[in-house]
């Protein structure tokens, strides 16, 4: 349920409404938009209580949300949320670009990529220090050393660091180095982790689960929002189907669906979605044309030698050309990159 | 297997190679490209016979195809095939536009839509006269009367008619009215029908099966090609997944995959893929950016009153705006519409 | 909608009701059960007309079906339909056993298998004469010669022949030799074919489409029933998922689901579902325990030399042991085999 | 890689081989079977080193595993592992029965169910204290109070407690009360959690991820085994498909597949798989016939009033009848319950 305050409502009136709702045993989330304040309430207290609230001074309207994720819904906030990490923004007219290696491997590799990525106009350096790997015998990431390398490389190029946090017990460590916390596809249903990043002050990048419906994905975002962290961006990365030529099936229709249901910005990761270098550029262009708020791209100085996911990492020259092409598409749809 | 003749090979040499292959019991398909003639052979006769052929006069090379669809493979024909119906072309720099109602309902409706569609620059009028419906109690189409209406409306606007043929027993009838034969998603595995349209002189539009892999789709095309009809265009229309918000999950990665594996042009149908009017435009733009060779779009004068699939049909004004937006994207990726 | 006549209703009364319904423009299907006659009406004529019918003499009740397949629904016929082909029955307490080679290859092979199959207690000899193959270059079946072989082998052992019809143009030919017409998984959505077998006097075995929902499968059966052929048995054969170890994912929950929604008997084909010989026996036992009305099993004298699907065909000794084991399970659940 | 020692190998020889492998930087897991000792080595050190090891005294053979999960593979341990929790066993001839409410709701409810479950012959009381819920606004479980209730109810009836641990930070708490640690479907890819339960001395019940392949599931088990905890049982609970009638599609073929690839026992949860009470019994019988090593069943005194998943919980009388029917099937396939 959402309580929409009148534009002229006083601070006192707003607080009175909040206090009544709290008395009813409801969690209240206050959000000050440009023109009006709205109060998101996690549960619906029923017809009688809604009527009661509607008649309080300063209340313009009480809206039942048609969707089970009130805080993530467009009803709660009509404008797209701007998610900020350092100087970078996701959700604005200019598309966000998050790029870097799949896994951090060395200082030299990461520094080189940070320069490349910054030169191409990216605001974020991505890279895994803790890697979720299907096999316990695969390279699991450099851990804290990887975080340190990412931080230094990003600082040199004024980039924001986005990196994955895989477990509540690593959160404090990752927060120390990262500007944005990534929750990976395999952890989209890890509710303990979602609650903890919801208590963090760092923005969150929430990837879609490999077989998650769009509604479940937005409910996972709701777990984060409900803890008070409203800086959440979503990332589409493909879903699992019977097709074997691509690693996953990139579901670009999720971009306009999310944008109609929710105020959270949504970016696309064509690298993990396809799992094949030769498909990344076409899918990146398509994502931009579909209206995505940004792109997450894997690039590697020598993909064939990568310790993880080399098959899908672009060569530096391919990455530069992808950015140029996506910029042209972005302009054709009234955005920029 | 593919036999590539030298550019300077004489007609006599080519015929001699053909005749040897036929003697080996192999089906041979001759294709004259701009620079050279190639012979597609459906089965691989083994190392010894390949060597024998390779040494014949006029033969430049004998290539084993890595894929199980020799005639559909890029190896067989490096340039994208141009599929022509009347004055319209699929596969060129300019994107093809196929538009019209889901089902033909009346002369007035169809005429009005043909004019709209032609004005927007489309070369094809689409519309179902025989409709494959999940329920035997749903509207099944006007049959021959629908074909007649389509023909008249298209002729008035110089459009090519593309319409579905659902069964071998209807083929002769549909051929009489249509310029291009559509094989629908539910018939992609109907091999008897594929063989019959393969014997037709009309070009074929082959939709991807609702749960078909890309390889199976290209093998279905191979059924048509193997009968001698080389005028085949493919149409991506989404695959079935667990997602319930959209009717299907549009798999745009199939566009670059098909284009790397095959010389057949590939278009996209965002109307059936999404099943929701409000998603069609974004997915059409994405399809163009992904490199699709054309778009198939449903439009209806009064979608809310349509006898079939009204939920996904665009209002005329939405269609015009979609075409404008897609044209901008097409130009950004070096094509036109 | 279903009109349930009173047990004491006279023939005259029944005909009067039929004639009123026909006057309303509705298709009526009469079904005489053991205790009462019911009239299935394909469409619902609305509240007023239902009330009118309800008040006619001899009418006990008018029931709206909750499902979109009135003729296939349990409401229409509370007892499971017995589908008969020659002396064999599907739907009784005793489970039906349909066995034989994937494709008919030779007279000798088929005769040997027919004897084996009959000795094991099967009532049906299965075998493909027209084979739906993903590749146009795979063995497509012996055609009419295969039908002739099947017929002779079955006759010698007093078995019923069940074999696939792939196209309306082959139907008359297949009807001449077969006792039961199989509509394969790839043709479950081939509505032209469903309508034609619905006009046949031969019973039909309808396989579930490879990505069909249970509702779509029952609607496909409704296409057959609506043409007047009420002798339809269903066959679960697995659906397509992301799992790659098995060819399909056998959905045994479809057995109790179908049995609660419909009066049509349902059998299970573990051979095509798994695609692996070593899994067939376990899945056959599971199917029996789930309540399946029969099993369809592929067996081959020398599976490793089979022209089609050898990987999933059982050796004769494995088949005999499967039947013994399934018989024990059948008895444990109150059936027999 | 697996090093198989000769039956007559001395303890000294075994330790010498272990020490050589450790020197090579490999993790070694020793397993003493009834007849021989085998050493599982997580990574393959290459041909030269394998030869070296093969020639050491007491070594009978060095086997490369065809599968990427050496410790979980049947090659590593030919007999099925017996997983023990208190007096209950999973993996023996007698099937294990794990039953109880979806979520623990009260002491009275749980006590009553424990008595019911024990009377039916179950060895395990299941019940959620921490519940993974799609929505943050759904009932999340009673937490530690729920664990305390479970413990007391189980102790009164001499049952083992199996309950879910959702996060590494809760592990110590759950270990204090539970006899077996359940890792739920949504956490199957939570590698941090898998590693931590791998360090626990409590046995682990690992559910299959909702869209996990069988190989990924066994690799998740490998994460646990590789930390030294060899007491792992697997639980099939359905996978996600396009079918909407059932909540998931129960993949019973995973039972014989797991049993051929791995020595870990595998049980089946038909309650979560189907999500519908009326399908649970049929799927339980099918699971037993497929060879499952046990069943996990939800039962509730008043399902319609359950705080979580009431739709799929059995009434007490249904549960008792299910057990009787499954016992008959178990005996028909040479097991007991």
Secondary structure layout:
4 copies of one chain form a homotetramer.
Chain A: E1 2-5, H1 11-23, E2 28-32, E3 37-41, H2 47-54, E4 59-63, E5 83-85, E6 88-90, E7 96-100, H3 107-119, E8 124-126, H4 144-156, E9 160-164, H5 171-177, E10 180-183, H6 191-199, E11 204-207, H7 214-225, E12 232-236, H8 254-261, E13 266-268, H9 270-274, H10 277-290, E14 294-298, H11 316-332
Parallel strand pairs in A: 7-8, 7-14, 8-9, 9-10, 10-11, 11-12, 12-13
Antiparallel strand pairs in A: 1-3, 1-4, 2-3, 5-6
Q: What can you tell me about this protein's structure?
A:
Chain A is α/β, with parallel strands linked by helices. Helix content of chain A is 35%, strand content 18%. Chain A has 11 helices and 14 strands. Chain A has helices spanning 11-23, 47-54, 107-119, 144-156, 171-177, 191-199, 214-225, 254-261, 270-274, 277-290, 316-332; strands at residues 2-5, 28-32, 37-41, 59-63, 83-85, 88-90, 96-100, 124-126, 160-164, 180-183, 204-207, 232-236, 266-268, 294-298. An 8-stranded parallel β-sheet of chain A has the order 13-12-11-10-9-8-7-14. In chain A, helix 3 packs parallel to helix 4, helix 6 packs across helix 7 and helix 10 (277-290) runs parallel beside helix 11 (316-332). The radius of gyration of chain A is 21 Å and the shape is elongated. The two termini of chain A are 36 Å apart. Chains in contact: A-B, A-C, A-D, B-C, B-D, C-D. The interface between A and B is large, with 39 and 39 residues.
């Amino acid at each position: 349920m959402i309580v929409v305050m009148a534009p002229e409502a006083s601070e006192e009136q707003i607080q009175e409404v909040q206090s009544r709702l709290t008395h009813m045993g409801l969690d209240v989330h206050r959000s000050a938009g440009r023109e009006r304040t709205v109060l998101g309430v996690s549960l619906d207290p029923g017809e009688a209580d809604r009527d009661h609230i509607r008649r309080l001074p300063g209340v313009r309207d009480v809206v039942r949300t048609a969707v089970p994720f009130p805080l993530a819904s467009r009803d709660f906030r009509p404008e797209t949320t701007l998610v900020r990490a350092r100087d970078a923004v996701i959700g604005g007219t200019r598309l966000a670009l998050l790029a870097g290696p799949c896994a951090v491997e060395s200082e030299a590799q990461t520094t080189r990529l940070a320069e490349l990525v910054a030169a191409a106009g990216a605001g974020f350096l991505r890279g895994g220090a803790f890697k979720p790997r299907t096999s316990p015998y695969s390279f699991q990431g450099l851990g804290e050393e990887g975080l340190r390398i990412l931080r230094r490389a990003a600082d040199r190029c004024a980039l924001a660091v986005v990196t994955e946090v895989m477990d509540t017990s690593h959160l404090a460590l990752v927060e120390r180095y990262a500007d944005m916390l990534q929750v990976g596809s395999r952890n989209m249903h890890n509710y303990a982790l979602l609650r903890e990043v919801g208590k963090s002050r760092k923005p969150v990048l929430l990837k879609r689960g490999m077989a998650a419906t769009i509604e479940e994905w937005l409910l996972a975002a709701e777990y984060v929002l409900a803890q008070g962290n409203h800086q959440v961006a979503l990332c589409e990365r493909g879903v699992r189907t019977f097709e074997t030529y691509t690693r996953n099936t990139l579901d670009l229709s999720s971009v306009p669906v999310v944008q109609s249901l929710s105020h959270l910005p949504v970016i696309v990761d064509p690298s993990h979605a396809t799992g094949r270098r030769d498909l990344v550029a076409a899918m990146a262009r398509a994502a931009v044309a579909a209206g995505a708020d940004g792109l997450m791209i894997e690039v590697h100085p020598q993909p064939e030698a990568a310790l993880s996911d080399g098959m899908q990492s672009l060569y530096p020259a391919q990455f530069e050309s992808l950015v140029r092409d996506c910029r042209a598409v972005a302009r054709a749809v009234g955005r920029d990159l």
